[in-house]
Please model this.
Amino acid sequence: MLGTLLVTIGTFALGLGVVLFVVLASAGSGAAKRAYRTTARVPVAAARPGGALVAVEGVVVPGPDGAFASPVTGRPAVLLGVEVLERQGDEWVTCDAQEERRPFLLQDESGELRIDPSTATLELLRLEVRDPRRPPPRDPGRLRTPLTPELEAYARGYGVVAHREAGITEWWIAPGERLYARGRVELGPHGPTLAGEELFLSNRSDLEALYQRHAVEGRHLAAIAGLSMLVGIGVFACAAALAWVSP
Model:
């Protein structure tokens, strides 16, 4: 009986350690941090086709397709995502999600560069529209505004049932704001364009601090994973010893 219990505990502890190591391996925050720190930053005018990964920073300017307004805040944007959520128990569940991405220009003192965000990875500021009684988010990149009756009606129109709490999350790239972009410049039909699967875009000014927080969280998870695996191995050893000495 005791041996079976020890085996069960050991299996759970070892399994937890393995799962945490898999989560750490797939998180990718370390690679993102290295790319942010090591990719050469160049003026917009110096970003030319040629295969090298480059990083540029500048001000967002609408392209030929122009900007459009957010249905939630009225914010002008060249890229906008809106997620409508409802509270189910302790979790927020998505009822509807929409995103529109339009090509735009990134401009600095040296010139401008076309950006095609259609396949970009995004690390953007987010506005959470929630009941004002909800505690504020810990992440400084997640802003908060109260859920008004008009916005609640908007959420209900996308499937949030009447007896459940509604919420809306919005993320954006807006004209006039500063943007960090990293990727490879391609020579497209509209001239040099930063585009492709490796393109990364962020309007957050705290990327370095964000990656630092991710690194600390990763070290904590690694410590827990290692301890869990050690506990699992130790419990298995105890179970084996118990089985060896038992008649």
